[in-house]
Design goal:
Helix content: 55-70%
């Protein structure tokens, strides 16, 4: 993995607090969006692209708690569509796999 891509992957992994949320770097590199989705950081890449930081772990847990309560009351919980397309391509991982 080239240095520039490594920095992007490491930044997203660290900024999204994935280690604290139980996701390994290997899991993140294998399928970034699945890893983000699995811990409730589904909008992390959109937030980063907008110049913002992803949620802190406490905020992720609170969002999940509120989503469960909202759903229990009979409301539909909507996850907004992503605007960036393929997360592996965005992080440069797709091109790395093709050149390996």
């Amino acid at each position: 993995m080239n240095t520039e891509i490594r920095r992007v992957v490491d930044y997203v992994y660290e900024a999204s607090h994935l280690a604290e949320l139980g996701v390994t770097l290997d899991e993140f590199e294998a399928d970034p969006q699945a890893a983000l989705d699995s811990v409730g950081q589904y909008d992390a890449l959109d937030l980063i692209r907008a110049g913002l930081r992803p949620l802190l772990p406490a905020q992720v847990h609170l969002r999940a708690k509120l989503d469960r309560a909202w759903h229990k009351e009979g409301h539909q919980v909507v996850v907004h569509p992503r605007t960036y397309g393929d997360s592996r391509a965005l992080l440069g991982l797709a091109s790395e796999a093709a050149s390996a």
